[in-house]
Amino acid sequence: MNIRMSARCAALAGACALQEAAAQDADNLAAMINAYRAAPDTCEGRPARPQAPLTPQPALSAIRIGPGTIIEAALERAGYPVEQAYALFVSGPDNAGEAMAALRTHYCAALLSTGYAAIGTYHDRAGWTVVLARPAPPLPSASFPDWQDAGQAILDGVNAARAEARICGAQQFAPAPPLRWNPALGAAALAHSRDMAARRYFSHTARDGSDAALRAQRAGYAWRRIGENIAFGQHSPQDALASWLTSPGHCANIMNGDFTEMGAAYGVTADGRSGIVYWTQVFGKPR
Questions:
Q1: What is the per-residue pLDDT for 77?
Q2: What is the mean pLDDT of the chain?
């Protein structure tokens, strides 16, 4: 019997058989993906190179992807911190072979990516889902800097970025004046980073329903304009800033000349598991 079957299956023969069949289908699909990586032939009409096999991970098969699901956060809650994850979905195929054919047609580049090392698959009434992931590396042995020092490092990097013209996605930005450090914005960033780390979520909306504007107000900042960037999993202030600069929306916040002040901080989960670091950067313009 497949190890993913529920113990109560023994008392539910019909449901058990269906569950076992779905799990076996998913396992077959994972094997087909690794076979394709070993001998891909072509991808998108071009010759493709063989790639190393992906390691099946139960945590990747156990999560369920729905509208609005942040895969990295869902996996972190399941005890599998990741540096990068991606979900592929196809509906319609009746068996693993047909599902593989559809995946090759629409997602061959992702299936052959060297950016992933692990795989999870599941098959339900909606269709076939493949989760690809690269596990988060262990945290550096050295301790993190004080949160204010980390925030200052981000501010220095932001001001260096603002000193030059920059393209964020399709938007062109002229150089912008440097930002000043604001303690209240720093406190708001620290509170949100630590809350995300403590409660294991990743969102601009906190578990109490607050947004960046309300959190800045709570910290004592009277704002005319407010903005926020968040990041997950980076192991240094420089890495967090680099991830924001490569994302058009986050980059636009960094280059926005209407902002005059900034605060930034990080939070790390209390148990110290690998890769679970949350970053928050709050921009403001006071009244």
A1: 72
A2: 88
Give the Å distances, CA to CA, from 56 to 98, 132, 140, 148.
20, 10, 26, 40
Burial of 109 (0-12, 13-18, 19+ CB in 10 A): exposed
Put residue 252 in one of left, alpha, beta given phi > 0 → left and psi -120 to 50 → alpha. Answer: alpha
Q: What is the pTM of this model?
A: 0.60
Cβ count within 10 A of residue 12:
12
Q: What are phi and psi of 61, to 5 degrees?
A: -85, -20
10 Å CB burial of residue 131 (0-12, 13-18, 19+) is: buried
DSSP state of 164: S
Which letter does DSSP use for residue 201 in this model? -
Amino acid at 178: P
Angle subtended at Cα 18 by Cα 12 and Cα 22, rounded to the nearest 5 degrees: 140
* DSSP β-bridge partners for residue 131: 87, 120
- Cα→Cα distances 35→31, 38, 104, 123, Å: 6, 5, 12, 19
Q: What percent of the residues of the chain are helix, what percent strand, and what percent coil, each to the nearest 5?
A: 40, 25, 35
Q: Which residue, among 58, 73, 57, has the nearest Cα to 117 in the 3D structure?
A: 57
Dihedral angle, C-alpha 43, 48, 51, 57, nearest 10 °: 0
